[in-house]
Design goal:
- This protein is an alpha+beta fold.
- It has 25 helices and 20 strands.
- The strands form 5 sheets. Strands 2, 3, 4, 5, 11, 12, 13, 14, 15 and 16 form a 10-stranded mixed beta sheet that branches. Strands 7-8-9 form a 3-stranded antiparallel beta sheet, with no helix packed on it. A 3-stranded mixed beta sheet has the order 10-18-17.
- Helix 14 (about 490-500) packs across helix 16.
- The longest helix is centred in the C-terminal third of the chain and has 32 residues, at about 620-650.
- The chain starts with 14 loop residues before the first strand and ends in a 26-residue tail after the last helix.
- Residues about 555-560, about 630-635 and about 720-750 have low confidence and may be disordered.
C-alpha cells in the first residue's frame, strides 16, 4: 500500500522487517479460509435481540452496527480477493447438515437460533446479498443429494443440508505474494531481521527509528523513519515494550486466541466440498475442509497466550476428532493414527490502550498511536481484511498527506500471465503430471514458467519432468531452487511455507528433509557443517508439529488405543470371520504398497500367530500391534529426542558427556543440582564404568523410568516446553559453522 500511494508531494520510502520468515507465525496457521464472518453476523444478531436492547438500547444498537459493518466490509474484501487474485484463491462450498428442525440448547445462547434449521436458507441468501450476490449462490441439498455429493456424511438422521460458499487460499503463499509485490513496487523488505530497540530523539523522547539485527548473520544496523508501525499480531505487546525509552511493561493491548487444527487423509471429505459444525459441544465453530489433497479440521478462538511453535494440546486434538465423528458415516472412524499433522495459530484480539476507559476487545482491527513515542500499532482483524487494514493504518499515520490508496487495482505477484488454461499449457510443454501442474499454477500463477526453468527430467516415460520430493504430494525439487530466490533461508522455510508438507503430513516432511537439505546446499553454497546444523534445526522444528503419535507427559507417548487396533483388525479381516488368514495378510500388505514374498509372509504370520493354530485372532493382532508400536514408533521417538538432548549437553562436541557438562546443563536450566547429585546421576548413566557417558548409555538412561533425582524429568520437560515454544535462532552458531546472510545459525532448546 505505502509503496504504491499516489497524489503525494513526494513518494514514500518504505521498509518492512520481519523477525522470522514471511508468514512464519500466525499468517501461515489459519484455517485457509477467506471468510466473510457468518459467525459474527449470528453473534451480532443474538446480541441485538437480547434483553440488552431494552436496558441499554443505544449501546446495543451501536455494538450491532459495528459488528455488522465489520461483516459487510469482510464481504467486500473477500470479493476483492476472489475476483482480483484468482491465481491465489478459489471458492469452496461448505455444508451445514441439519439433523433436527429445532435445536436445544440453542446456538449462541439465543432462543431464536433454535430455529436455525428452518431459517438457514434465508440466512444464507442474506449472507450472499451482503456481497451483492457476486459469490456462488447458496442452495439446499436434500438427503438424497447429500448421499451422492458428500458420501462421507452420515445420512441416518439428516433432514437436509444448507450449502454456502467461502473463499479459500494457501495462506503462506498469499503472504509471500504480498511481500514480493511490495518489493516489486519499490519497498525494501527483509526476513529474519528483528527490531531490538527503538532509536529515541534526545529532546522529544519520540522514536525516530529502530535498531535492528540480522538474526542469521548477527549483523546490527539502524533504520531511521518518520513513521513507525508495529504489526506484530498476537506478539504486538512485546514490540510495544521497546517503544518506551525506559523500557519495562506496557498496558496490555492484545490478547491471543488460538485456533487448533488437525489434518486428516483426503478420503474423509469430497475434494471440493467442506462442512461447518456451528453448534459444537463447547459453542465454537468447527470447520472440516478439503485443502491441498487433505482435509483440515479447524476450530475458532480459544483465548490463551501466543506461542511461537505450533504444537496443539492433545486434548484439543482429541476434541476435534470426537466432534467430527458426529456427522460422519458409521463406516468412517477417525482414529488417532489418522492425524497426519496438527498445529495451532494465534490471532490477536485487540483493544486500544490509549483510548478512553471502557474500550472493548475487538475482532475487527484496532489502530492506536502512542502520543509519547509517536509509534502506531495495528492489531486484530483477520486474513480477509489484510488489504483494508493496511489502507486504514496508512490513512491514520499519514493523515492529511495520505494521498490515494491504489491496492484495489493491484494484482498480486504471480497474477500477471495467469489464465485458467495454464495447467494444460505446461503439461503439453513439460510433460508434467496433472496433479503437479495444477499445484504449480495454483501456487505461482504466471510465475510458473520461472519455476519450470529449474525443472529437471524424471528419467521416466511419464511424467517427463518434475522430480517429486516425496511420494503422494505434488511438490517438486524445482520449487526448492526457486524458493531460494524468494527469500527462503532455511529448511524450515521450504518444508512449512514454500511447500506445505509440514502442515499436511509431518512424517512426509521428515522424509523430504534430506533431499531439501541437499538442494538448498547446492543453491546457497552451504558448507558440510552448515548443512548438518540446518538439518538438526529442521528436525527440531518438525518435532513441534503433531502427527500420528501424540506428545503427553513430557516425552512419554500415548499408544494406539485398543479401538484403533480393532478397527485395523476388522479392515484386514475382509470376510468377517473374526480371524485373519495368510491370504488376508498378504492382501493388506499389497494394498499398503508393501507386497510380501511367500517367505516374508510365512515369517510375519508365524510372528503374530502366537498360539500356532494357523489363524490370527483379534487378541493376537492387538498384542502384536502394541509390541510393534513400542519397538518402532516409540523407541524411534525416544531415541531421536534423547539424541537432541545429548548433543545440547555435549558442549565440547567430544561425543561423550562428563560430570562438568551435566552440572552445567542443570545451571542453564535454572536447577542447580548438588555435586553429590551429579555424581549419582553420572554413576547411573556410566554403565560401562569408563568415566564418560556415550550416546547409547544416555539414551538407555533416558528410557529408564527410574528417576529419583528428577534430572530426567527436567531434561524431558525442557526438551518439550522450550523446544516447542522457543526459537532456534536464540544462540550463537556452534563451533565450525560459518554464518552468511543466506544461511542460518542454530538455536537451542536450552535457550
Amino acid at each position: 500500500d505505502a509503496a504504491t500511494r499516489t497524489d503525494l508531494p513526494s513518494g514514500l520510502k518504505v521498509a518492512c522487517i520481519e523477525r522470522g520468515d514471511f508468514a512464519s507465525e500466525t499468517s501461515s496457521r489459519s484455517t485457509k479460509l477467506i471468510w466473510a464472518g457468518i459467525k459474527y453476523l449470528a453473534s451480532a444478531s443474538a446480541a441485538l435481540l437480547s434483553w440488552d436492547l431494552l436496558t441499554s438500547p443505544v449501546t446495543t444498537v451501536k455494538d450491532f452496527y459495528s459488528e455488522f459493518s465489520m461483516v459487510f466490509n469482510c464481504h467486500q474484501e473477500r470479493k476483492y480477493m476472489l475476483d482480483k487474485q484468482q491465481h491465489l484463491t478459489n471458492w469452496v462450498p461448505i455444508v451445514c447438515p441439519f439433523t433436527e428442525w429445532n435445536i436445544w440448547p440453542p446456538p449462541f445462547g439465543h432462543p431464536i437460533f433454535s430455529f436455525f434449521p428452518v431459517l438457514a436458507p434465508a440466512v444464507f441468501k442474506f449472507y450472499d446479498a451482503l456481497s451483492q450476490f457476486t459469490c456462488p449462490p447458496s442452495y439446499i441439498m436434500t438427503k438424497k443429494e447429500a448421499r451422492t455429493k458428500f458420501p462421507q456424511l452420515s445420512d441416518q438422521d439428516i433432514k437436509y443440508c444448507a450449502v454456502f460458499y467461502e473463499g479459500q487460499h494457501n495462506d503462506a503463499r498469499t503472504n509471500i505474494a504480498i511481500a514480493l509485490s511490495a518489493a516489486e513496487k519499490g519497498a525494501h523488505i527483509a526476513n529474519y531481521v528483528e527490531m531490538t530497540d527503538g532509536i529515541f530523539d534526545e529532546e522529544s523522547g519520540k522514536v525516530i527509528g529502530v535498531k535492528a539485527q540480522d538474526r542469521i548473520s548477527g549483523e546490527t544496523f539502524e533504520i531511521y523513519a518518520k513513521n513507525i508501525i508495529f504489526a506484530g499480531g498476537p506478539f504486538t505487546d512485546k514490540l510495544r515494550s521497546k517503544e518506551e525509552k525506559e523500557g519495562g511493561p506496557v498496558a496490555k493491548a492484545v490478547q491471543g486466541a488460538s485456533g487448533s487444527h488437525i489434518v486428516l487423509p483426503g478420503y474423509f471429505a469430497p475434494k471440493d466440498m467442506g462442512l461447518l459444525d456451528y453448534n459444537t459441544s463447547d459453542g465454537r465453530f468447527l470447520f472440516f475442509l478439503p485443502w491441498q489433497g487433505s482435509v483440515i479440521v479447524g476450530t475458532t478462538d480459544k483465548k490463551c497466550d501466543a506461542e511461537t511453535l505450533p504444537y496443539p494440546p492433545e486434548e484439543e486434538i482429541q476434541w476435534m476428532m470426537k466432534e467430527v465423528e458426529k456427522y460422519l458415516s458409521n463406516d468412517l472412524k477417525v482414529r488417532r493414527s489418522d492425524v497426519l499433522s496438527a498445529w495451532r495459530g494465534w490471532r490477536p484480539l485487540a483493544a486500544d490502550p490509549h483510548a478512553p476507559p471502557g474500550g472493548q476487545v475487538s475482532r475487527d482491527h484496532v489502530i492506536s498511536k502512542n502520543p509519547s513515542s509517536g509509534v502506531t500499532f495495528i492489531a486484530g482483524g483477520k486474513w480477509t481484511t489484510w488489504r483494508e487494514m493496511a489502507e486504514d493504518v496508512l490513512d491514520k499515520v499519514l493523515e492529511d498527506k495520505a494521498g490515494k490508496c491504489n491496492t484495489l487495482d493491484i494484482v498480486l505477484h504471480g497474477g500477471e500471465g495467469f489464465n485458467k488454461n495454464l495447467p494444460t499449457q505446461i503439461i503439453q510443454k513439460y510433460g508434467l503430471s496433472e496433479e503437479v501442474a495444477n499445484h504449480l499454477v495454483k501456487t505461482y500463477g504466471g510465475r510458473v514458467w520461472d519455476v519450470l526453468e529449474k525443472c529437471k527430467p524424471t528419467g521416466k516415460q511419464w511424467p517427463r519432468y518434475g522430480v517429486q520430493l516425496v511420494e503422494g504430494y505434488p511438490y517438486i525439487e524445482a520449487e526448492i531452487r526457486f524458493a531460494c530466490k524468494e527469500y527462503a533461508c532455511t529448511i524450515e522455510d521450504i518444508l512449512s511455507r514454500r511447500t506445505r508438507l509440514a502442515f499436511l503430513n509431518s512424517e512426509a516432511a521428515e522424509e523430504a528433509l534430506p533431499r531439501v537439505a541437499d538442494v538448498m546446499a547446492e543453491e546457497l553454497g552451504w558448507s558440510k557443517a552448515t548443512k548438518k546444523e540446518q538439518i538438526k534445526c529442521a528436525k527440531k522444528y518438525l518435532a513441534a508439529y503433531g502427527g500420528r503419535i501424540p506428545y503427553e507427559d513430557n516425552v512419554a507417548l500415548r499408544f494406539m488405543s485398543h479401538e484403533d487396533s480393532m478397527d485395523m483388525f476388522r479392515d484386514i479381516d475382509r470376510d468377517g470371520s473374526g480371524f485373519i488368514d495368510p491370504q488376508e495378510l498378504k492382501e493388506i500388505a499389497t494394498r499398503l504398497g508393501n507386497p510380501l514374498s511367500d517367505k516374508q509372509l510365512k515369517e510375519l504370520f508365524r510372528e503374530i500367530d502366537t498360539d500356532k493354530n494357523g489363524k490370527i485372532s483379534a487378541e493376537e493382532f492387538v498384542a502384536w500391534i502394541s509390541a510393534k508400536q513400542s519397538k518402532n514408533d516409540v523407541k524411534q521417538y525416544l531415541t531421536a529426542s534423547a539424541t537432541v538432548i545429548f548433543e545440547e549437553i555435549d558442549t565440547d562436541e567430544s561425543g561423550f558427556l562428563d560430570q562438568e557438562e551435566l552440572k552445567a546443563v542443570t545451571v542453564r536450566l535454572g536447577e542447580d543440582f548438588t555435586d553429590k547429585e551429579i555424581r549419582k546421576i553420572f554413576k547411573e548413566m556410566d554403565t560401562d564404568k569408563d568415566g564418560k557417558i556415550s550416546l547409547e548409555e544416555f539414551i538407555n538412561w533416558m528410557d529408564n523410568e527410574h528417576d529419583k533425582t528428577g534430572f530426567r524429568k527436567l531434561l524431558a520437560s525442557n526438551m518439550q516446553d522450550n523446544n516447542m515454544q522457543g526459537s532456534w535462532l536464540d544462540e550463537k552458531p556452534p563451533k565450525g559453522v560459518t554464518i552468511k546472510r543466506k544461511y542460518t545459525n542454530s538455536g537451542s532448546f536450552l535457550g
